[in-house]
Amino acid sequence: MAATKDRLKRDLAAALRAKDEPAKTNIRMMMGAITVAEVAGATARELSDAEEIAVVTKEMRQRRDAAAVYAEAGRTDLAEKETAEADFISQYLPTPLTEDELVALVDEAIAALGEPPTMKHMGAVVKAVGVNAEGRAEGKQIAALVRSRLG
Hints:
By secondary structure, the chain is mainly alpha-helical. The chain has helices at residues 3-18, 21-39, 49-72, 76-90, 99-111, 122-133, 139-150. The protein has 2 domains: 3-90, Hypothetical Protein Yqey, Chain: A, domain1 (Orthogonal Bundle); 99-150, Arc Repressor Mutant, subunit A (Orthogonal Bundle), CATH 1.10.10. It is 74% helix and 0% strand. The protein is globular and about 60 Å long.
């Protein structure tokens, strides 16, 4: 069993003992999303830790997007609830890379090309940085930085 799922199970038991309703709800939601991902496809399988982190990241992103929509519609109560859920979920994600760390990864990937970099190398550089970032940076952020460094 992957580390994220183990941690969620331990934290759920603690939340149940403490009668912490928001924590119970959020942990169960994350565990449910992981279970859905495990049974998706032709055969059920256990997810790797990286895949579990991707599922949890997706859940957090959905909460942030919902909060933005609620805030735009003037529903600050619901926006605050979604933001609180996203903040709770974020504690299960790896620490995001700083801008400097991400720039270093991009520069390293560009240097590994072995030829003068052009925009045609963008896909390869983004892929290499994405593998090295291991879920600690969003794809849009990586692509924008690579585009600025190559362009």
